[in-house]
Specification:
Blueprint (H helix, E strand, L loop, with lengths): L8 H4 E4 L6 E5 L1 H13 L5 E6 L6 H4 L1 H9 L3 E6 L8 E7 L7 H12 L4 E4 L10 H9 L2 E3 L2 E4 L12 E2 L2 E2 L17 E2 L4 E3 L7 E8 L5 E4 L5 E3 L3 E8 L5 E6 L7 H6 L3 H13 L11 E2 L9 H31 L2
Parallel strand pairs: 3-4, 3-5, 5-6, 6-17
Antiparallel strand pairs: 1-2, 2-18, 7-12, 8-14, 9-11, 10-13, 13-16, 14-15, 16-17
């Protein structure tokens, strides 16, 4: 039809600016063309708004990989303050580690959006102060969820990386993980707080655990310093079913999808966020193609390893080839 997607050189190549000049460091050709094809063949482009005004972390400075992956999957990404009504074109709103509570009018605008079937993702870091957030808590309670003001440590060495605070959560079977490849399920989450699913069951609310810690984990309440034993939920999903269904995801961490953290671990956290967005939009397909690095990593060997490699390649392997040739020649001579 009339849809056009122009791909520039910057879309195809990733550059390294660590020196005085820009040097190509990776190729993004496959991702660029997959994204372009998806963009021009899609009927609509959903808009996702990152909420600002509560001390949230910057999308462009801290979550550029998350943003670019969402754009590659045909999501229009914008920022939004909740001072007015949330636009009708909003497919979802995302909160990136807010430090202060919603104001009364902001809460009203958010609830009005959700009552019309709006969806939201809340990535909530460990709280640095003891200041309560009753308006956020009221939003979560509406969906039979709660955010705990605690700090979780993992005690099972199979489920943490290097230190007790870097948790490898165990994924639960739910509508989000069912669309993820098993190799994409394992993520690394530093400095987590827990979430809870409230016990009061209501037929118009469907809750699902997203991922959790082991039974050897423990949490410290940051208000009372009380210790509690695990397992703990680090993320949960909820659907509020009325005339229009509204969905939310509540996760007690945002760092696991930040640029600096994924550079040292993996990008599987982005797969979770994208799968959550697709679950909210009743979609199942996604495009996550990592850039192909152009840098070559040298093989570091000890002196003894180098000697063994030299002997093997210079003498052992040629003698094996000569021996195999002689064996075949002798066999064929006696046939």
């Amino acid at each position: 039809g009339k849809k056009i997607k122009v791909i520039s050189q910057n879309d195809l190549v990733e550059y390294d600016y660590s020196s005085y000049t820009s040097n190509p460091s990776a190729l993004k050709i496959e991702r660029a063309f997959s994204s372009a094809i998806k963009s021009v063949t899609a009927d609509v482009t959903p808009v996702v708004y990152f909420v600002t005004g509560h001390g949230e972390r910057s999308v462009d400075s801290n979550f550029s990989d998350l943003k670019s992956t969402m754009v590659a999957n045909n999501y229009d990404v914008q920022e939004l303050a909740l001072t007015g009504a949330i636009p009708d074109d909003a497919a979802a709103v995302i909160f990136l580690a807010p430090k202060t509570d919603l104001l009364a009018n902001e809460m009203e605008n958010l609830l009005a959006y959700m009552e019309k079937g709006g969806d939201a993702i809340f990535l909530m870091d460990v709280q640095e102060t003891a200041t309560p957030t009753p308006n956020f808590d009221a939003i979560f309670e509406r969906y039979s969820l709660a955010l705990n003001n605690d700090y979780v440590l993992e005690g099972d060495q199979r489920w943490y990386l290097n230190d007790f605070n870097i948790i490898i959560p165990q994924p639960n079977n739910n509508d989000v993980t069912t669309n993820l490849d098993p190799n994409s399920l394992f993520i690394y989450m530093p400095n987590c707080r827990s979430v809870s699913i409230l016990q009061a069951e209501q037929q118009w609310i469907k809750t699902q655990p997203l991922f959790m810690t082991s039974s050897k984990s423990q949490s410290t309440n940051l208000l009372t310093n009380e210790l509690a034993l695990g397992p703990f939920l680090l993320g949960a999903l909820s659907e509020f079913q009325s005339s229009k269904t509204s969905k939310i995801a509540l996760i007690g961490n945002s760092v696991f999808v930040s640029d600096t953290w994924m550079d040292t671990t993996n990008s599987n956290g982005i797969r979770y966020i994208l799968s959550i967005l697709n679950w909210m939009q009743d979609k199942t397909d996604s495009v996550i193609v990592p850039a192909k690095s152009l840098t070559s990593t040298p093989i570091n060997m000890t002196e003894s390893t180098r000697f063994i490699a030299f002997i093997s390649l210079s003498f052992v392997l040629p003698l094996m080839i000569i021996g195999a040739g002689l064996f075949v020649w002798i066999r064929r001579k006696h046939l």
